[in-house]
């Protein structure tokens, strides 16, 4: 069967695969076409991440399906340029501790993260792609 694998805001490739192909094998095929190491790939089908050990058949991926690949940075550092990168959870936690005691800030943080996850889950990949593109444009203008 033929499938399409597309990078957000980037290249895509058409691959000929079998239903019995596991996700790790697929990542290796993608690596050959898009020059991205399998360890740096996160494959998504209909917004759901795919596990390396499962087969395409287990995800009901059919002929003509379109998968997205999210590319992780090769380096595992917590800095970009001279700026420190912190998680959303850590940033919100720091902010809340200015106004609430430790126990209350944890409660508020947990509720915030639950609502954030619910809101993010309701977005389509197209919505996320548009937001990502807008953020990248903003960063280029700042630099």
From TrEMBL:
A GO biological-process term: tail-anchored membrane protein insertion into ER membrane
GO molecular function: protein-folding chaperone binding
Subcellular location: Cytoplasm, Cytosol
Organism superkingdom: Eukaryota
Domain Ubiquitin-like: 1-76
Record GO cellular component, one term: BAT3 complex
The protein's name: Ubiquitin-like domain-containing protein
Source organism of the structure: Ladona fulva (Scarce chaser dragonfly)
Taxonomic classification: Eukaryota, Metazoa, Ecdysozoa, Arthropoda, Hexapoda
